[in-house]
Amino acid sequence: MVLWIELHLEFQNAFESGDASRVRRIIEYAKWCWNAHDGDTVNAVGCGFLEHLPEHEGMRGRIPEWFTRAEFERLRAAFTYHAGEAAVAEIENRYRGS
Fold first, then answer.
1. With contact defined as beta carbons under 8 Å apart, do 42 and 33 qualify?
2. Distance of alpha carbon 34 from alpha carbon 17, whole angstroms
3. What is the DSSP string of 22-73?
4. Torsion of CA 12, 18, 24, 26, to 10 degrees
5. Distance between CA 54 and CA 87 in Å, rounded?
6. What is the DSSP letter of 4?
């Protein structure tokens, strides 16, 4: 879990500085871990990193670039719990617009 908290801070720094390569690499690693067969790994990446992405307005707008619609649907409950219904509706509108 500590790894994902630290990676979330690194991700925020990369996002805010416009380091698209580092953003992409962290997202890809998170997705790889999220699809692991180990429940502890999935839980750690979900709780320590993924579910917090839509809390940041700028990141929320990029979720459709980073995740397929199916991946978004798997994360919907966590996103809603942390960022709220309005944030999830905003993300859904972006999927419809793309």
1. yes
2. 25
3. HHHHHHHHHHHHHT-S-HHHHHHHHHHTGGGGGGSHHHHHHHHHHS-HHHHH
4. -30
5. 7
6. H
Taken in order 5, 45, 81, 11, the sign of the CA dihedral is positive
Confidence of residue 1 (pLDDT cuts 50, 70, 90): confident
Contact of 51 with 75, CB cutoff 8 Å: yes
**pLDDT tens digit sequence for 39-85:** 999 999 999 999 999 999 999 999 999 999 999 999 999 999 989 99
**Structural domains counted in the chain:** 1
Q: What angle do CA 98, 96, 65 make, to 5 degrees?
A: 45
- Tokens 């996103």 belong to 79
What is the average per-residue pLDDT within 13-20?
Answer: 98
Q: Which domain holds residue 65?
A: 2-97
